Amino acid sequence: MASILLVVALVRRVFIYATTPAPLVIPTTPAPTTWVGVIGRMLREVVFFESLFKGNKWTWLFGWLFHFGMLIVLVEHLRYVSEPVWFWVASIKWLGLYGGIAMFVGLAGLWVRRLVVDRVRYISTPSDHMMLGLMVAIVGSGLLMVYVFPTDIVMVKSFMLGLLRFDWQPLPSDPQVVVHLALTLVLMIIFPFSKLLHAPGVFFSPTRNMRDNPRERRHITGWRSDANSDKQT
Amino acid sequence: MADPNFKTPKLTSIQDVPAVQPGAMDHSKPFVAKAEHQEALGFPGELVDNWKEVALDKMSDLLKTNRALPVFLDSCVKCGACTDKCHYYLGTGDPKNMPVARQDLLRSVYRRYFTVAGKVLPKLVGAKDLTEEVLEDWYKYYHQCSECRRCSVYCPYGIDTAEITMAGREILASVGVGQKYSNEIIGKVHKIGNNLGLPEPALANTLEGLEEEVKEDTGIDVKFPLDQAGADVLVIVPSADFFAEPHVDGLIGYAKVFHQSGISWTLSSYASEAANFGIFVGNYENMQKVAERIRTSAMELGVKRIVVGECGHAWRVAYSFWNTLIGPFDFLDSDFPVPQHVCEFTSELLRQNILRLDPESNDDKIVTFHDSCNVSRGSRMGNKPGGQFTIPRQLLRASCNHFVDMAPETTHEHTFCCGGGGGLLTDDLLELRVKGASPRMNSLQRVIEDEGVTHMAAICAICKSQFSKVLPFYGMGMEMIVSLHQLVGDALVFDNEH
User: Fold this and answer.
1) What domains appear along chain B, each with residue ranges and CATH number?
2) A55, closest residue in chain B (CA to CA)
3) Does the CB of B408 have a partner CB in chain A at under 8 Å?
4) A201:B74 CB<8 A
5) Where are the domains of chain A?
6) Which of chain B's residues have a Cβ under 8 Å away from the Cβ of A123?
7) How far is A105 from chain B (nearest CA, A)?
8) 20 to 30 Å CA-CA from A166: which of A151, B95, B103, B157?
9) pLDDT value, residue A231
10) Which of A28, A63, A231 has its CB closest to that of B160?
């Protein structure tokens, strides 16, 4: 259910982003003039967080640790849904712990900044703190269930595989497992309705994904004809 | 120079980030447009009775017609990277001048009426009802943003507060509370053809005066042609270039360059304005209507090229938007980019050795360069990204033996706004303008102390006017600010080969 909601709501948002016109050419310049250049800029943005690096080194450091820890952990989690475990997933198993720790350190750093820096404290809403709390709880319970109070991982895996095959299998009743999975569900549900939309949003940001070529190529959108048709009241 | 109503920020050699001081600029707001100024632009004359409904409709409309808005309003994670980037925050400490907080004024209403989370749990996600108080805040703080895009450089999602400000201002104008300064000026362009409301006879007179002045100074018959059909190049300049100091020295510089190049050119009395305040109020239709005069004029005069003078936002509109708004330019010579910046034009002539500059003419000056925000972050010059930084500097180095840059974190794409851009160049916002200039004044002060800088060149009419006004507040002479083409014109060697 949560997965369906995540996918449907997310697809709807992305559809809105993709179909809303960008009436004018507004890349933040200097900007690439070709699509290849735009892809390069976007890759630097999502892989290295280029703009954030220019903006604030601490936020960059913690943000990057968190996101790349998460990437490692997500890949590592594929072993719960693949059987036999894909080779490339198995080969990074040893990285999982470091990924989890990186996430934890990143989150902690971001949260401290949010509490300590007066400017960031001013712009924070309760949901910003809750989101951090939620992620910390998910990461914490995950680390606990594997590295501190090991649960029956084999049983977790057969539960996950069962889910994929719509064949309900028993789940270990350890609290850390239940918390971990329940909170992950919560996260999936709020994803498309919250600031987590930054993940798809970045790809649709006109200041980053437009080419700087307005003189060479006339940029027109369907909307322009509306503008011409004197719709002012 | 001092104003009894506020304190000019102290100059510091390192840019401080002030502590959050809620409400520090809560009193700052520009005069509201009168009914006649609103109606001339197609907006209601005063606050409409059902303003809330109209505002939300307008917002819904904008969300559907400008992708930047839904993406920017959804994506912000409140990371804080932008919080110390706005010159108005740095100069005032008012937290609503932090870009993210400025966006949040609109975002909180967006969340309340257009998102599930804000409808169900408004408190949790910072969603707010649209009240008169909120409207008031929009009016105040969307007129404390110069749409300079500095924040967008540092945002991991490229969120451009300028787009949010434009949307905010458009909604305000749509419910009947537009800003007097910008709307009155747009009205003048619609009616007369330039921001100053300068009619054709006055313009012709002014240009004649300039010809005499240059003749007196140099002994050369430099012409300032007006409405000359069949000229090769239509030159579109900000109307301040016709009479304001130091702008007019820039215009004299362009005229000298054209004279020496032998390329025929003309100004237009119908399209006697490069500025386009339509961008400031965020209104596509008005921006298009203002730009349209230039297309019409170029066709009527039968020119082959269009060159735009020194003006920041005008260059952004011309370079980035003209082709969309008033293109295609298939009636012009396709061998040249349309439009061309006057710096590109001069630089090309230098490259071809058609012009000769003698930098010794400016040996009495040590010059630095203020990158204008709209040129730096909203446009380009030349055929490579970053040409908007290298080409003006190339011209300055060719014109002056003593050129130094200000600190790298305050130039190029990191440049600070002069404090008067985006439709804020009005005396009812003087405190904001003086305080907003402080980051630029700090970096200028540093090169004055370290390098003995005597002059700062700019390529924007607003920057020039703003600096002339605020430099004295910081104990600097207003004559420090010069037009780039003044320096070029002064260094230009006249010979008789052409």
Assistant:
1) 35-178 (1.10.1060), 187-491 (no CATH)
2) B154
3) no
4) yes
5) 33-211
6) 78, 80, 83, 95, 98, 100-101, 104
7) 16
8) A151
9) 32
10) A28
pLDDT digits (tens, 9 = 90+) for B398-412: 999 999 999 999 999
DSSP collapsed to 3 states, chain B: CCCCCCCCCCCCCCCCCCCCCCCCCCCCCCCECCHHHHHCCCCCCCCCCCHHHHHHHHHHHHHHHCCHHHHHHHHCCCCCCCCCCCHHHHHHCCHHHCHHHHHHHHHHHHHHHHCHHHHHCHHHHCCCCCCHHHHHHHHHHCCCCCCCCHHHHHCCCCCCHHHHHHHHHHHHHHHCCCEHHHHHHHHHHHHCCCCCCCCHHHHHHHHHHHHHHHHHHHCCCCCCCECCCCCCEEEECCHHHHCCCCHHHHHHHHHHHHHHHCCCEEECCCCCCCCCCCCCCCCHHHHHHHHHHHHHHHHHHCCCEEEECCCHHHHHHHHHHHHHHHCCCCCCCCCCCCCEEHHHHHHHHHHCCCCCECHHHHCCCCEEECCCHHHHHHCCCCCCCCHHHHHHHHHHHHHCCCECCCCHHHCHHHCCCCCCCCCCCCHHHHHHHHHHCHHHHHHHHHHHHHHCCCEEEECCHHHHHHHHHHHHHHCCCHHHEEEHHHHHHHHECCCCCC
Q: Tell me, what's the pLDDT at A230? A: 37
- Which of the residues A29, A51, A232 would you substitute to probe the B interface, choosing the one with the greatest number of B C-beta atoms within 10 Å? A29
Pairs of residues, one from chain A and one from chain B, whose beta carbons lie less than 8 Å apart: 221
Nearest residue of A to residue B71, measured between CA atoms? A201
Nearest neighbour of A21 by CB, restricted to B65, B115, B413: B65
Superfamily assignment of A33-211 in CATH? Transmembrane di-heme cytochromes, Chain C (1.20.950.20)
Residue A140 has pLDDT above 80, yes or no: yes
